[in-house]
Amino acid sequence: MNPLLVAKAYGAVQKQVSGLNDEAQRTNDVGAAFSKVLNGAMEQTMKTTQNAEAQMVAHSQGKADLIDAVTAVSTAEASLESVIAIRDQVISAYQEILRMPI
């Protein structure tokens, strides 16, 4: 795991969250803003994964350097780990809500 890639991914998510927080305050619809953040994270993960796949195919055909393929795979891995971390936090929050006394 490259710390620089993780920092870039974290920074990108923070920009999305801060922009959506302003939007959520204007519309008072925090649920929609949260949904947009999750949707954006999933779309970004899909794009990085597709790019990694394309780089691997290009490398196997001799059209791309190995370093480009490895970098694309590392970026996709970092993006996927971010989505998994978000998923785990959402599940944890849901379980915490279920444990609340009524």
Taken in chain order, the helices and strands follow as HHH
Q: What is the approximate shape?
A: elongated
* Strand percent estimate: under 5%
Category from helices, strands and their pairing: mainly alpha
How many individual domains?
1
As residue ranges, the low-confidence spans are none
Query: Tell me about the biggest sheet?
Result: none
Portion in helices: over 70%
Rg from alpha-carbon coordinates: 17 Å
Keywords:
102 residues; mainly alpha; 3 helices; 88% helix
Describe the 3D structure.
This protein is mostly helical and 102 residues long. The protein has one domain. The protein has three helices and no strands. It has helices spanning 3-27, 30-60, 66-99. Helix 1 (3-27) packs antiparallel against helix 2 and helix 1 (3-27) crosses helix 3. The radius of gyration is 17 Å and the shape is elongated.
